[in-house]
Amino acid sequence: MQANGCRILSLNSQKEYLITVGTYGLSDLYLKKGPLDARKSLPDILEGKVVFIADAAKDERVQYPQIALAQGISSIIGVPVLGKGETIGEIRIYTHEPRQFSEADRSFLHSVADMCAVVFERAELHQLLEQDHKTRGRRKKSSQVPPLPTTLESSSFAHPSEEDFAKLLDFYCIEWLYEPRSFPLRWQGGKIAEMFTPDFYLPELDLYVELTTLKQNLLTEKNRKLRQLRELYPEVNIRLLNKNDFLKLLAKYGYGPLGEAKVEGIDRVLYSNAKIQRRIRTLARHISRDYTGQRLVLIGILKGVVCFMADLMQHLSLPVTLDFMAISYYGGDGQVVKITRDLDSSITGQHVLMVEDIVDTGMTLNYILSHLSAHNPASLRVCTLLDKRARRLVNVPLDYVGFEVPDEFVVGYGLDYKGEYRNLPFIGILHPELIKGEGPTPT
Ligand code: PRP
Question: Count of domains in the chain?
Answer without folding.
Answer: 3
